[in-house]
């Protein structure tokens, strides 16, 4: 198996962190997003959407989408489950993970893609000739700050994002918080529960993946 | 168990169609999105994000996010699997389902929320005081048309969205195609494979759910 990814990209980091938690090692092939290698024919033959990461199985099947790749490894190596252990915990982890993607990751991507010179004319990941919309920058910031407030509220009740166990939702949230530093947003100093949670997750070996 | 939902909303329809495929009946509670009932305290106590659908379990636990709710039922009633039957089919279905959400559903929501008078000042679902950004309308249309092209390409290879079996990805795609009619976009007449697929799915009893 091979993982097409990029050491900088937050979604690729989510997969690497997941694999590290599972103790799985894979051949990694770097694809340079800034140079647009993800939009060239070689990579598009693996994923016509031009998005990283992509997992190529031994039989040549290519699986894109971070969560699909992580689920594949959860299925083939179920020890140390990161997607939950019963119907209720699985549903809650899926719910929280999606909340972080929609409310945290997408607004950050909007801020970055519609402001960074590196992505001029590439305001949607995986596509060419999409002009930036500058109004998405303040909208993204407002959405992300609301997400941070909700995260703080959630972590007043839970030790980890989806309850008492570390899960894939913590991986997503942790990578999203680090990604926020790209657009110069940090956890507000008043968000004590989020800071405590972050300081706990950052000590895991997988945080270096 | 109770399902908080809305007969008009595409995500609620995805859950109803999933339940119909599984032969599960649930108590349904309607929440009027146009009137903003989803932004009132009663509903926000079930889901602080203000989004439908929400499943309330017997113990009072509330699960939001369409896919989390569907997965819950897949877990408690695994017969007739709609999320796949092995690691590879599960990963491919998850991948395709997410592609349809990100590339199909989100652009449509952008078009609708940034143009419809019913959602003035509510340009992001579940939130108040978010102004429309009119440039998102042509961007959303361009993204959605690209999605339709990719869907047609996919259906030249596969009978169903993720392979030879009907899955939750077909439910998502079918509800997205019907949702597109809200913003007056139809399957192009040249997309023969998509039309054949649609005409097959629309005859399933669950399409009426």
Automatic annotation (TrEMBL), chains A, B:
Homodimer. Pfam families: GST_C, GST_N_2. CDD domains: GST_N_GTT2_like (cd03051). This is Glutathione S-transferase N-terminal domain-containing protein. Residues 1-81 form the GST N-terminal domain. PANTHER family: GLUTATHIONE S TRANSFERASE D10, ISOFORM A-RELATED (PTHR43969). InterPro entries: Glutathione-S-Trfase_C-like (IPR010987), Glutathione-S-Trfase_C_sf (IPR036282), Glutathione_S-Trfase (IPR040079), Glutathione_S-Trfase_N (IPR004045), GST_C (IPR004046), Gtt2-like_N (IPR034345), Thioredoxin-like_sf (IPR036249). Gene3D superfamilies: 1.20.1050.10, Glutaredoxin. Residues 86-209 form the GST C-terminal domain. It comes from Thalassotalea psychrophila.
